[in-house]
Please model this.
Amino acid sequence: MSTVRASCHCGAVVLRVDLPNGLTDAHRCDCSFCRRRAAPNVSVPLDALEVIEGADSLTLYQWNTMTAKHWFCSVCGIYTHHQRRSNPNEYGVNIGCIDGVNPADLEPIPWSDGVNHPSDR
Model:
């Protein structure tokens, strides 16, 4: 298992993330929200992420079913992570926030079909 540090752009929010599968399951989603943000993410179990700095700087965004929870830095606006709707026992972590990782180096990153979300079936 690899433990990494992730942070927003301004550094107000810092996460500790355990990546049990590394970055092998990097993906993007094309739902109405994610395609606007286009940030690739990697999934981790809920207990694999800890906010180690700046919990008070995080802002929560939810809509529609209110199941997914998307967190952003209230200072710089960067999306850091979200609790997934398709599996609320997992977080999606913005790969662009992981120290030393350039998402361009992981291309091509596959897109998941969030328009036809599995929870809508």
Q: What stands out?
A: The chain has a mean pLDDT of 91. The helical segments are 34-37.
